[in-house]
Amino acid sequence: MPKQVLEQLETPALILDEARMDRNIERMRSHLRRLGVSFRPHVKTNKCIDVARRLLETPQDPITVSTLLEAEYFAAHGVKDILYAVCIAPNKLDHVMALQDKGVRLSLLLDSMETTRLLAERARATRRHFDVLIEIDSDGHRSGVTPDASELVEIGLFLESAGIPVKGVLTHAGSSYDCASIEAIRAMAEQERAAVVLAAQRLRAAGIACPVVSMGSTPTALFAEHLEGVTEVRAGVFVFFDLVMAGLSVCRLDDIAVSVLATVIGHQHEKGWTVLDAGWMAMSRDRGTAKQPVDQGYGLVCDLDGRPLDDFILVGANQEHGIMAHRHGKADRALHLPVGTQVRILPNHACSTAAQYGNYKVLGPGREITATWQRFSGW
Amino acid sequence: MPKQVLEQLETPALILDEARMDRNIERMRSHLRRLGVSFRPHVKTNKCIDVARRLLETPQDPITVSTLLEAEYFAAHGVKDILYAVCIAPNKLDHVMALQDKGVRLSLLLDSMETTRLLAERARATRRHFDVLIEIDSDGHRSGVTPDASELVEIGLFLESAGIPVKGVLTHAGSSYDCASIEAIRAMAEQERAAVVLAAQRLRAAGIACPVVSMGSTPTALFAEHLEGVTEVRAGVFVFFDLVMAGLSVCRLDDIAVSVLATVIGHQHEKGWTVLDAGWMAMSRDRGTAKQPVDQGYGLVCDLDGRPLDDFILVGANQEHGIMAHRHGKADRALHLPVGTQVRILPNHACSTAAQYGNYKVLGPGREITATWQRFSGW
């Protein structure tokens, strides 16, 4: 097949810069190696076996998933050690057992006596073994029991008495996405570490082995200074990075490995608008940078080689229309890009933008598209 | 196959209430019949042939699409009269010609002399016929030439001289989504009508036949009082409706035909939070009600029969976690829904929420799931 180049793609298309991705993966891996913890990458961002193969050193390596469909898909590609990092609901247990029957070692999460009782009941009724971690709330962000809660030990003891050994404790410092500085991220990483380690210590003091101590978010994973007591780290978005991560100074703009290729389809000259064929369906509705010091609208516009057209962002988006303009609304500073010009747009949030696409167009050197990698959606 | 009921679905799932959908379609159809205009439904909201079959009286009926993939898909299901309602970019013309070769009568849109010249050049080079409409800007919302612009007639004359007859003029009053009252929507409908009719009159005065005069958005289509001079109306979201439309008083809450089925997976009792397995991936990141008088967060929570749990909304969302709480943050007013309880969540925006799913679970009487209808995504 003849080589395809960027300019030949119909737009919008999701472009994945392979060299940047490989560099981002190596950065995380070498950092965690230095800290002496194992890595259980989160594949919810990429939902693509070709990306996961870069993340894993062998197919025996562990992964983290956010849906049971991710577990199904990666298991079908040979991955067997899978952590489902969302608290389990009783109506998903049939599906969990079907995965176990396919040879998947699926670890489940829970954070309450209520779910513990439901699970124990089901384990007894089905004579099944479930691998269970207890979710710890290290930052008030969403789920989890606090590390000092009496319920934590109660859950642990109940599980063990029901013949379900506690595999470990897990936390996710989602609040790291709201940190104002790298210093604050470092402090958040230490808060996350201390919370999950305290939880493990309390369980161990109660006679529960608790071998796994799992934490992670991209910011805290990359900026943790030490991870004493932690056995594994989880992170996902670092593979691609995005404008939210750049806004946090967790990466540079030129580390962002995903972008949306779009075409100029018109202008509203007197307003300084350039209309693109990439709207919110192509970018997602994520406005994660709206709360950051620099609001990037629906995305930062770059030229075809990925160099930012400074100060030009998508100031608005309809379903299939993106409105590119100067970020401060300076109509007289409009760029005059002819109809048909292609641009690349860096997204606010890699997870949500990538979810709008069925594949990645993999960008190699010299604008060459070296591969098309399929990704999936849904549950 | 034994009947499946709502409670048996794994969550999250997209539920489509068939009776509500049919009622919504009949409402639009009878209104437009009264106004004496033909209907070219927009299928961007549903992206599903089973829904489109309810919308169309015969497969020969016309449709509106927002992507060429929609054109491909509906053409493969026998629909041939298709309007691609986004201004055409030169790099899509090969695809357009491939669709023509499959027997599709695809109408294209443009709004500038720049695109007109590019298209005329391509028509000459390929000896192809293109059906072209000129987009009119009736509300300053995004694309189009204003109806009084000299460029409008210039485009028309250039097209005709290049042997490309002007099929018509088209406008979309996207600003109707920002109207504060039904009175304002009626005024917007009249503004939209007057603009597109003026554009047609100016072209006709210049000797251009301009047979098609097309307008539409769900609010203006439903509340237009007369449509003199208009030949066809386009609208899409009315099939499902959503919280944004209900916030505009365009529909009632119990007209909303799509909802997300979710399961309670945990609680943070002291905060009044109920954690659900439907986060922004299940709801989309759309926060369309944020600018309305009643902000519905990421969605309004209902019981399994679709009755709103008054004042309980998704106040926050992570990728696969939704946080349900009292809309005014009253922790003492929390509902205590046990883990495993299923709820249904009405979405802000049907187009963006439905786009997160590969199918609709069609809800019939008595919580019965009568069918699974596939839908597609991408470009």
TrEMBL record, chains A, B:
A GO biological-process term: D-serine catabolic process
Keywords: Lyase
Protein name in the entry: Alanine racemase-like
InterPro entries: Ala_racemase_N (IPR001608), D-amino_acid_metab_enzyme (IPR051466), D-ser_dehydrat-like_dom (IPR026956), D-ser_dehydrat-like_sf (IPR042208), PLP-binding_barrel (IPR029066)
Organism: Albidiferax ferrireducens (strain ATCC BAA-621 / DSM 15236 / T118)
MF terms (GO), sorted A to Z: D-serine ammonia-lyase activity
Family membership: Belongs to the DSD1 family.
Organism ancestry: Bacteria, Pseudomonadati, Pseudomonadota, Betaproteobacteria, Burkholderiales
Pfam families per the UniProt record, alphabetical: Ala_racemase_N, D-ser_dehydrat
Domain D-serine dehydratase-like span(s) in chain numbering: 257-364
